Amino acid sequence: MERWVSGRNQQIANLSYGSYRTAGSNPALSAIFWIICLFLFVGCQTGIRFFYSHSDWFIERWANEFLDFRGVRKKDLHQEVQGFFKEHQKTERPLIAYYLRSTADLISRGDPTEAKIQSSLNDFENLSQRTLVLGAPGASRILASLSAAETEKLIRNIERKNSHHRAERENLSLEDWRKQRRKNFIKAFRFLVGSPSREQVALIERWAEEGNYSKRSFWFEYRQSQQEGLIQMLSKKSSPSDIERFIENWIYNRNRTPQSDYAKYLQTERQRLIKIILDLSLSLSPKQKEHFVETLQELSNSLSGS
């Protein structure tokens, strides 16, 4: 990687890879982080093209932290990742660019409503899920091909990652968690919209303060339960099609009980997110709105290659 990474692009790579790692052991979150990284960390068209064109390297590096492939097996992983990104460029990248253009048009027209924000979030989630589902067949073929020794190594690496994440979570107080959420939200706002006003900072701080962070363990517990289900399938040497079906159910959250505490928590957090986006949208100055539209258009143009 070092031979083509330098200066500004090295910073982009470090930021992107660091945030991508925070997806942890959950395959169903990883691709979402690629889209989020594009939104939050890359501020120029050259940077976006650089990041997207080399994202296969990041994916392979992340996957191999769990698989620890060498030699021929590493080539097998490379071939699957290349096939995924070739298809993604053809089918999904244009849809993401279109979504960004449509969002820019929506902001230009003004009159934000809860229903419009809900619809936009639904579109974003659908795009993320489409990307993940596109990668499911290749991931399933790799997982189904694991030997007993490779499966044991994968289990050890997952547990090592989980232990690290548990320690991080336990060492982070609720107040520190709030500060982190507030910091990340303001960082995203600065990139997309520009410097926030005092009123806007107050809105973000209130949003961060009111979050029920004592429930944040729900996500980790759900992820771990899905990992255990996947490991059971690997131990039984399930077929690629069965593993692919399990991964798709994970991606679409079909594996969780609709009335579970975790599902209720997600719904509450989603409504809070819609509320803060609506409040901030209504508070935008003409200059901030113009900056927001220009940023989204630039991202769209970069992904569409124009």
Please sum up the structure shown:
By secondary structure, the protein is an all-alpha fold. It has 14 helices and no strands. It has one domain.
Can you tell me about this structure?
- By secondary structure, this protein is mainly α.
- The chain has one domain.
- Helices cover 81% and strands 0% of the residues.
- The longest helix has 31 residues, at 114-144.
Question: Which structural traits does this protein have?
Answer:
306 residues, mainly alpha, 14 helices, 0% strand, single chain, 81% helix
Compressed to H and E, one letter per element, the order equals: HHHHHHHHHHHHHH
Over the alpha carbons, how many angstroms does the gyration radius reach? 20 Å
Helical content band = over 70%
The biggest beta sheet is recorded as:
none
Number of helices: 14
SS elements, strand count: 0
Q: What is the average per-residue confidence, as pLDDT, rounded to a whole number? A: 79
Low-confidence parts, pLDDT < 50 over ≥5 residues?
1-45
Beta-strand proportion:
under 5%
- Structural class, judged by helices and strands? mainly alpha
Distance between the termini: 26 Å
Domains (count): 1
The coarse overall form would be globular
